[in-house]
Amino acid sequence: MTDATFDAFALPRRHGLAEQIDWDRWLMTGLLLIGCLWMLAVVIFPLGVLFSKSVFDSQGAFIGLANFQRYFHTPSLARSLTNSLFVSVVTTLVSVPLGLAYAYALTRSCIPGKGFFRGIALLPLFAPTLLYGIFLVYLFGKKGLITTGLFGFWERTLGVSLAVDIGLYGPVGIIISEILFTFPQAMLILAVALSLADARLYEAAASLCASQLRTFFTVTLPGIKYGLISAVFVCFISAFTDFGAPKVVGGNYNVLATDIYKQVIGQQDFGMGATVSIILLVPTVLAFLLDRFCQRRQTAAIAAKAVPYRPQPTAGRDGVLLAFCSAIAVGMIVLFSTALFASLVKVWPYNLGMDLSHYNFRNTGGGGLTAFWNSVRMSAYTALAGTAVTFLGAYLIEKVPGARGLRQAGYFLATIPLALPGLVIGLSYIFFFNAPAWQVLGWRVPNPFHFLYGTMAILVLCNIVHFSTVSFLTATTALKQLDREFESVSQSMSVPFYVTLTRVTIPVCLPAILEIALYFFVNAMATVSGVIFLYSADLQLASVAVANMDDAGDVASAAAMSVLIVVANILVRFGYGVVTKGFRTRAQAWLAA
Amino acid sequence: MNQPSPSTDTPFLQATGIEKTFGRFTALHEVSFAVRRGEFVCILGPSGCGKTTVLRVVAGLERQDTGAVHLAGRDVSRLPVASRNVGIVFQSYALFPNLTAIENIGYGLRRTGNRAGADARVQELLQLVGLTGMGQKYPAQMSGGQQQRVALARAMALSPDLLLLDEPLSALDAQVRILLRSELRQLQTRLGVTTLMVTHDQEEALTMADRILIMDRGTIVQDGTPLDVYNKPATPFVASFIGAMNFLERAISEAPGQYRLGPLALAVQNGHTHPAPGTPVTVAIRPEDLVLKSAVNGDGNTVGAEVAGLEFRGPHYRITIRLPEAVNGSSLKADVSTDAVRRLQLRAQMPIAVHLPPDRIRVYAGDTA
Asked: How far is B241 from chain A (nearest CA, A)?
């Protein structure tokens, strides 16, 4: 070391600044408290109102469980519970193995074009689930391409009709749609689980002469146990609560989600709507709790010093997996091209000439391009506000010194929305925000949030809550990767927490933050269930317009609007890619170890 | 150097009766110690003994349940870390990865508002830790040793009253660690900053510290200079934790300074307090203090035994010696120079005589178990 003269007293001492930090701690704890109260206000209270609606009649008289009795004694209603269960169980049984095989190909094989296959598999997540119904109708509906044997083309050219009617409307159509909807989600979860593997376990298995199949069942499957459990529950919940696909291809086959919609919008029976919502909520919450219970038992299965697994080329396996992935990719491309094609065709199936007439939305309801731009604005606000709220929330829950109880409460509150279907959030928000005042123990309490009703703000709020848990967990994971002592170091230098938050924590977490914003945007664009009860006549939305145009028989316009939604999401995803790449280039110096 | 040298008057840092529990686990029990101004004190103990908790309580990162901390004449027991004027170097260094070395070191200085002064100070600190010209590098571009110096410079930037080091060298390669040991100690002496360091590495503590506090299961079991704790370990735990120690159990006190182990009479002259005659004790001696001879020859404190095994360790041999059943049948470890092994022509199964020098023997009450 050098012989510098060291003047320890060259700078002023910092006792003056120091008092700040105690205040700092109070500020953080206060913010966390506000965050918890906020979650109470936007999650717990609306749910409470929803519960109460199910046990009161429209005149406000207490009727106990009469609505539930009526529900189970009306066969047409009670049937939809078993229908929903059937559809979601079948979907889960198909989706999880498909997702597992696909994720396995992406993580554990040497097939070419992994980036392409990954992107294609995620395509369904960019579209409203209504769209799956729509393109299935164009393929398998009464005038569908397959059903009519390419409008008789095969008959004319090959002499055989090759027309196949799969009986789309009903469980078949719903199940195909839900598989499309849940497959990418299962694939994502399992790809993460599969990418965390310790190569040494495989080397040990190989050295013990275990066959590939035996290795798969004794090493691979146990290693992704918790991912599999999660994938099963996520697929089940998604299929069980989806509204869009059954709305389009359900026909007379009722499921709980469409029942809620029919009770509320069709029959204006809010009490029964609330009742069905509760019935929808029960299996969902059960699945959510089971998943949480299982995940809690997960300890660090991968040792810190695990050697990452690198797949070796194996001709047979890679060939089979490549064929499998290609089949799925071709299927996806066919489905989405069909939607694009249908949106361009003048009059299906009579005039197959193409133009953009369905994209002017002039002769249809639903709000047209205004609705589309409303959706873009709403999604942008959701992305901005949602990212800020969830990241800050995760930060506080992770970093507030002490306040253990408050942090646990915050964590619990933040994970609840994962169990809440969009329809349930939407309906509870009508009840909660529409009420000018509540009667609480004989007192009239004015509703301080009433002014939000019918505004853009309530739509954004609903979306933030609806998609907050996944974002929250992403933020938490990113924050946990930071050194736990950053805050201690800052405090020891009398630097307030918000300086370290903005100078260090946020810059380092930027990739996760961008990912959260993208997630919010894409989902807000695509969701129907969350917002269908909350939009207003002068604030129409693209995804709702798809539902309404499809209802009115303007299926081509519905397809066109869906295409716009998908294109907007793809563009935003592309923009995200560019920004992320720019960030990585700029941060190369400190990311490189 | 404009700091006063270590002085023996009132302690600069004083912890009194610190208690800390986490749930039902008692992390610290009755922890009291004092550090003089300019002193370098190590807290040494096995993992889970509470040593890091002590550091965090002193820093103000954990609040003690009871007890007080006085620092530089102030009662800081209830002050947050920011008001205690301490600099901390963590085991992981906790360097901000997106900031350069200069930005890391100047992180707390920006708040003083004196920009030119802060810049000059950062340069001064860079020079001090020998990183002149490295200021624009990010932590990921530096070696472990360089990162450690940046962390040290950052901790010293605000002229702390007390420097707290939490296992600062444990993340480094063995050779760098030894180099940085002496650098760190020289720097601390030059700056005169009072320093409290936590480590589980006994060699680190012995070579660096003015004084060592040895902790076991939440309490301080010995407080002394490196020589003291090595030569006069207060408990069997300290004896076996620092260095190696042979324990001979079931010895009986016969008279002041006289013990018996079967046929072996042992004289002990080390200034210890004598237990009452008839008390069972454990006699202990370090492997390097045993003297091997070819025959007993009627010498005191000497017993005939057998060589059970030899282990070559480079500069010396570790010899395992089996004592006769009549003594207590246990084994002793002896460290013997390569030269002595040659001279005695030591090999397995040969008879040997072992001498236990009276001034090197430690006596502990009861059994070590």
From this structure: 28
